[in-house]
Amino acid sequence: MKKTTKSLAYVTTIKFGIFNDFSIKKSIKNEDIIISIPPERFLLQVDKDSLIFNKHLAKST
Questions:
Q1: pLDDT digits over 35-48, tens only?
Q2: pTM as predicted
Q3: Which H or E element spans position 44?
Q4: Closest Cα partner for 1 from 11, 16, 21?
Q5: 28 CB contacts (<8 Å, ≥6 apart)?
Q6: Which residues contact 1 (CB under 8 A, 6 or more apart)?
Q7: What's the domain count of the chain?
Q8: CA atoms within a 13 Å half-sphere pointing along the CA-CB vector of 6
Q9: Average pLDDT of the residues in 25-53
């Protein structure tokens, strides 16, 4: 699911299934900055893909 926030037209929020590897890679590949807030045990996949696609990453932990 992809939507634009109400106050900032240039910010896009994306919700994806953490166990869907294709969905994660596709979402990360198409964005400039990744802000990841899943539970800590799921962060590794997002970390790896952010590095692969050379994206900036901000995490909750």
A1: 877 777 777 888 88
A2: 0.62
A3: helix 43-52
A4: 16
A5: 34, 46, 49, 50, 53, 55
A6: 14, 15, 16
A7: 1
A8: 0
A9: 81
